[in-house]
Amino acid sequence: MSFSFLKASRGPKTPLELAKAVKDSFNALDSITVAEVKALEKAMEEVEKNIVAMKVMLAGDGEVEPNPDQVSQLTLEVCNEDVIALFIHKLPILGWEARKKLVHCWSIMLKQKVDSTFCCVQYMEKHLELLDFLVVCYDNKEIALHCGGMLRECIKLPSLAKYILESPSFELFFKFVELPNFDVASDAYSTFKDLLTKHESAVSQYLTDNYTEFFEQYEKLLTSPNYVTRRQSLKLLSEFLLEPPNSHIMKRYIAEVGHLKVMMNLLKDSSKNIQISAFHIFKVFVANPNKPREIKLILAKNHERLLALLNNLGKGGEDDQFEEEKELIMKEIEKVSRLANLES
Amino acid sequence: MGGGKKSSYSLNHEDYKLLEEVGYGASATVYRTIYLPSNEVVAVKCLDLDRCNSNLDNIRREAQTMSLIDHPNLIKAFCSFVVDHYLWVVMPFMAEGSCLHLMKIAYPDGFEEAVIGSILKETLKALEYLHQHGHIHRDVKAGNILLDTNGVVKLADFGVSACMFDSGDRQLSRNTFTGTPCWMAPEVLQPGTGYDFKADIWSFGITALELAHGHAPFSKYPPMKVLLMTINSAPPGFDYDRDKKFSKSFKEMVAMCLVKDQTKRPTAERLLKHTFFKKVKPPELSVKKLFADLPSLWSRVKTLQLKDAAQLALKKMPSSEQEAISQSEYQRGVSAWNFDLEDLKFQASMVQDDDEIPEIREEDEHMKSYMNYKENSVSALNAGIPSLKQDTFSSEQGSVGAVPLGELDSDHQVEDGLKKNSSKTELPPLTSGKDPMQAKSRCQTAKACRSQSGPLTPGVELSHSASERAGKSESRSKIENQQVEKAHQVRRAPSFSGPLMLPNRASANRLKDSSDDKSTTNLVQIKGRFSVTSENVDLIKGSQLRKTASVGDWILESKMLPPSRIPKELGLDNIPASILMPHLQNLFQQTSIQQDLIVNLLSSLQLSEAGDASQHGKSSPQCIPEYNGSVDAAVSERERMLLVKISELQARMSSLTDELTTEKLKYMQLQQRLNGMSNQGEDWDRRESES
């Protein structure tokens, strides 16, 4: 690193020059160059050198603090020169460390305010297809984590998060969170979770508009044979479903027998952790003062087994609140089971 | 670099043939594994996700991080995938296992400096990389430094054990792992603060000591004690006498890491430039030779496992079993943290609930009376000096979480100031039966300052039973911890919800400071006292593990333990029989709790005398004479009550002698001596009160 840095600083570049050099070097990674080992090596060296120079300008080098003016100028120039698109499109070609550095630079520039506007964000808003590109990158495990990192930086912004939620590529997440590679699946899950929890109004709107499709897909996660998928999706469900802005979604959800059945099955899961998480959603079905008749019927039909199951749930170490809730829920189930008019 | 390599491993668990266990822990086991498609040897860590409570966020985050790191000194995960409710992490196989394993098997007293230097330098490079990339390791210790046959050193376990940070399933976690926070920086142990990358530097310093001595400085204490010691005592370090073989630059480097103020610790980058690392040889030269003539890693692991099992089987009492488990966890190098203070407290309070052995019930009974006693005395105090109560209690509350900084600071200053003298005044061993008694009585005048010097006699030889004793005394002290805690609960029931032992410490600190300032007559005793917290920690560390354990009780609870030195001394002198020791220690620890009470009272009194002088402020010299007088009166009063307790307990002890038929004779001897001593004590007290 220090070697390349010295090289870069031999002719100290202005932000404008650097942006230009970055652009040229990225553009040099064309299909012809990539096909040829020697040429690619040389082109890559140039790219990596420029990325290092960029990182030094944006983040300093540990001794010298970055110059805010230079940071602003570089950010602006990178936007104006369409270099951002190059960053994203060429990311898969780059080497391991270069990718990491580039992601680092990217997250600094994204947060950079130039003349009261976030020019990088604006750029992304104008080039939303780049977000779709990043999502699809989860399919390439070599770059999945880098793209995931960039993506999560983007979806901190409501406008960009909203776009992904409503884009067809959002559906891909249901697949990505179950990828066999645990680290990639984990990263995808982190992004998925951020999308569903960070921006309440956008999420609420999305869920209202796509209620059926979304929960159809989500049920697949909840009933997945993959332990981690089941456990995480259940946890996430309670995180967004029980949020106040989504209360109308929640009411709709807990009125549906199908969802109750899924929860009841999860209550019987072999994992104690899953059982407990399931209880925290199951309780809402039972506590609902306006339980539809079908829900009551199922509760009444299964009340003996439910009570036995709940009785054993969380034995050893759950907190008082849990026990209290459990008690309440069990009472309610007993009450429902005694309602004579259900039996007809 | 490694980035592209990982793609060559499949995500199908059938491609991996798990062989011998090469590492095992509470919720994870590491296997030597053949990757069938290429016939390559790898390590697979199987982590039981269902044992991880709350959510999997930590594990997820760590998996992501582990895939993004790439450094020759860091264990990188090739890939990871889910098999049922296990997470399998495929990693490079390090044929010689961890430094901890190696020390346990072949280097119980630590490595040579040249080796340590190589290992530490490689580790530090890994830390530098991690910190540069914004990661914190959080678990730097010898158990996580892995070695390969060619001498390559890699830092491992990048938080895959993060689920142990959870506090959800207490019952389970208590029974399966009782980690010790030995490597944790003081600021990490304080609630409200978390891991800064400087915390890794502290752990690095502890690891350096661990490699130098064969064990971490506080490794033999129960977690709670370690926690308190880390927060309250002076940082651990090298001992002047025992560690002569180590170079000055090594010692200096370690001292730089073990500074309590994290802002004063160097960064990894800066530390790498330290002169100590300049002369270090590459690990291929120094580390490689360590493995000559050693059996294979898995047979070593097996040996350790068997040892653990034997150790467990030996311990019949539940409490010692617990201790044994925690010790064996340590020996295995299990990443068995429990970062939750609440949890530690909970563990402490649980010890008693489970233990059904009669003597503990006895203690229980005794505790009740003791607590009443304590309550009374405190209420008396309250009545007399309401404002003082306020002061004392509020500071106690504060100290549960964070010991007020000022106290810590003054602690330092005093220690620093006294360091020079301490080892000398300190060292003469108090081996005769009489000496401790004198010390004890002295400690009354010195406001319980002196007493700790006794047990820290370095010359005591270790018998075979010492390890037994160590284990038991440790469990004893655990119980005691929790009793003290209980006592506090009773005392402060209305306003206090989660007491730790810190209150004692806090008030003792206060006492310490003011006594330092007060008069030169007390100074000798104070020196003795402080040497405990500074120099002697090192001294102990330098000695053998077992000894550390048995002596260990003293360090933290020094303020509460004074009289219990007596049986210890006797025991070390006369009795090879380990069975007696717990009972005796038990007995005297009871007394020591009471001693603690005295200290508390004293500090309160002292405060009142000092008027509005601040906790660390100097009390005016004029106060001293009358202060001493009143204290002495109170002390001898209490002392007599304590002695009544002692004889009460001795009576109980005689009933136990039936069970101890083989040791009966010796036991009787002992008891007689004890009686003699308590009489002496009484005599002395009488004299004292008369004077």
Describe the SSE topology.
The complex is a heterodimer of chains A (344) and B (691).
Chain A: H1 2-10, H2 15-27, H3 31-35, H4 37-59, H5 68-80, H6 83-90, H7 96-110, H8 119-126, H9 129-136, H10 144-154, H11 158-166, H12 172-176, H13 182-197, H14 200-209, H15 211-222, H16 227-241, H17 247-254, H18 257-267, H19 272-287, H20 293-301, H21 303-312, H22 320-338
Helix pairs in contact in A: 1-4, 2-4, 2-5, 2-6, 4-7, 7-10, 10-13, 13-16, 16-19, 18-19, 20-22, 21-22
Chain B: E1 16-24, E2 28-35, E3 40-48, H1 57-68, E4 79-83, E5 86-92, H2 99-106, H3 113-132, E6 145-147, E7 153-155, H4 170-176, H5 186-189, H6 197-213, H7 223-232, H8 248-257, H9 268-272, H10 275-278, H11 283-286, H12 297-314, H13 318-332, H14 341-354, H15 358-384, H16 386-401, H17 405-426, H18 434-445, H19 466-491, H20 502-518, H21 523-533, H22 535-542, H23 545-557, H24 565-574, H25 580-609, H26 623-656, H27 664-690
Antiparallel strand pairs in B: 1-2, 2-3, 3-5, 4-5, 6-7
Helix pairs in contact in B: 3-6, 6-8, 12-13, 13-19, 14-19, 15-16, 15-19, 15-25, 16-20, 17-20, 17-21, 18-27, 19-23, 19-25, 20-25, 22-23, 24-25, 25-26, 26-27
Condensed summary:
The complex is a heterodimer of chains A (344) and B (691). Chain A is mainly alpha-helical and 344 residues long.
Record keyword descriptors for this entry:
heterodimer; A: 344 residues; mainly alpha; 22 helices; 74% helix; 0% strand; elongated; disordered N terminus; B: 691 residues; alpha+beta; five-stranded antiparallel sheet; two-stranded antiparallel sheet; 27 helices; 6% strand; globular
Task: Write up this protein.
Chain A is mainly α. Chain A is 74% helix and 0% strand. Residues 1-10 of chain A have low confidence and may be disordered. With 691 residues, chain B is α+β, with helices and mostly antiparallel strands. Chain B has 27 helices and seven strands. Chain B has a five-stranded antiparallel beta sheet. Chain B has a two-stranded antiparallel ribbon with strand order 6-7. Chain B is globular and about 85 Å long. Residues 1-6, 159-179, 316-342, 348-576 and 609-631 of chain B have low confidence and may be disordered. Chains A and B meet through α7, α13 and α16 of A and α1, β4 and α4 of B. Chain B: ATP binds at residue 45. Chain B: It comes from Anisodus tanguticus.
